[in-house]
Amino acid sequence: MRPSRPEFVTSAHRPRRWRILAASTATILSVVTIDIAGAQFVPPPPPTPPTPPVVLFPNTTDTNSRFAATASLTDLGSNFLRRLGNHATWGTNAAIGSNPGGGGASQAGTSAFPVRLWGEAYGLSSRTGPQGTFVGDKRETIGGVAGFAATLAPDFNLGVWVDQSHTRIDVPLAAQSAVLDLTQVGVNASYSIGPWTIAAAGVHGFGNIASRRQTSLGLTGSGYNGRVDAALGELSYYWSIGQARVVPKTSIEYIRATTDSFAEYGGLNPVSAGPATAERTRFLVGAEVGHYWIVDRRVIDLSAYGKFVDNVAQNVSTVQVSLGNNSIAIQGIRESRYGADAGASASFGLTDALRLYLNYDGKFRDGFHSHQGLLGLEVKW
User: Fold this and answer.
1) Is 0.85 surpassed by the pTM of this model?
2) What's the pLDDT band for 11 if we cut at 50, 70, 90?
3) Are 327 and 319 in contact (CB under 8 A)?
């Protein structure tokens, strides 16, 4: 008997499991569609911008030794100029010259000893206090002077001087130091009319400066040049009171110091700096008092002086300091408007034509003071 042929199954007769599967699939798709439609869009985070490069600016104290060197030029130039002026109107000279019995007196240098030659050795200590970005310094100087003078006509004298000095500059709070070697050439002249004497002096100086600055990567160094020019006019009156004297004086002084630009080398972040200039005009008013004694035909003279100082005009430039492509302008240091100078001298006539003298000179300003001691020997013929 042949088996029966299976019957054709229509969709109405499909198994129930297929209908269940189709319904489940439709439900899942509808749920996913609803979730996607209701979800909030969250944008991706923006990209992190690159870190900007660090911009380095010069430290405002990096050039402290530079300002100290410029101030040292003006101080040394002023000291030398003042020495020339004081020598031309020094009461000791007039006292010896007006005393024929005093140690072969030169009678103001007109006859017995028309030519004079001298040498001097000195030491100078100076301090400048903080000012603006300048943290303060201390300076020590040793130097020597040689001078030559002659009486060219009655009551008219002309002298030529040379000064050589070595200065050590220390700026401890900025970890900086410098050395200044300075040569100065000066001339002075005086003319007397009775008790009145008018004197003039001029100075030109030139030198080189070597600076050092401590950094975290060792020392930076620099080398540059400096110059100083100065002029002085002084008027004095010699008032004799027996063997004592009073010599009122008034003077005007102009001084200009310049330092060249430089670029540091070595260390961390070496900087470069432009030129610097300092100009000052001063009036000084004061007097010298003194007394001399004759001991065994030798003159011993003691004197002291004091002057009021008025810095009527000061022009101190800013300095452009650069580190890479960045730069800043830093103001130089100034003196106070008013101040005082004071000093004392002792002179000993060793022979008719030989004289030994000791001088002390002090400068006193608000935020600045200096003290100088000097030993000199004069020969006349």
Assistant:
1) no
2) very low
3) no
- 338 Cβ contact list (under 8 Å, min separation 6): 308, 309, 310, 311, 365, 366
Q: Give the range among 51-60, 230-239, 261-270 with minimum mean pLDDT.
A: 51-60
Instruction: Give the gyration radius of the chain's Cα atoms.
Output: 42
Type of residue at 73 = L
Contact criterion met (CB below 8 Å) for 171 and 180: no
- CB proximity list for 340: less than 8 A, separation 6 or greater: 306, 307, 308, 309, 363, 364
Q: Classify residue 131 by its DSSP letter.
A: B
- The pLDDT value given to residue 159: 93
3-state DSSP call for residue 318?
strand
Check: CB of residue 272 under 8 Å from CB of residue 260: no
3-class SS of residue 96: helix
* Structure-token pair, residue 198: 């008018």
> What is the distance between the alpha carbons of residues 272 and 257, in angstroms, rounded to a whole number?
20
H or E, element range at 26: helix 16-38
3-state SS, one letter per residue, for 192-245: EECCEEEEEEEEEEEEEEEEEEEECCEEEEEEEEEEEEEEEEEEEECEEECCEE
% pLDDT > 90, the chain = 70
- Three-class SS state of 125: strand
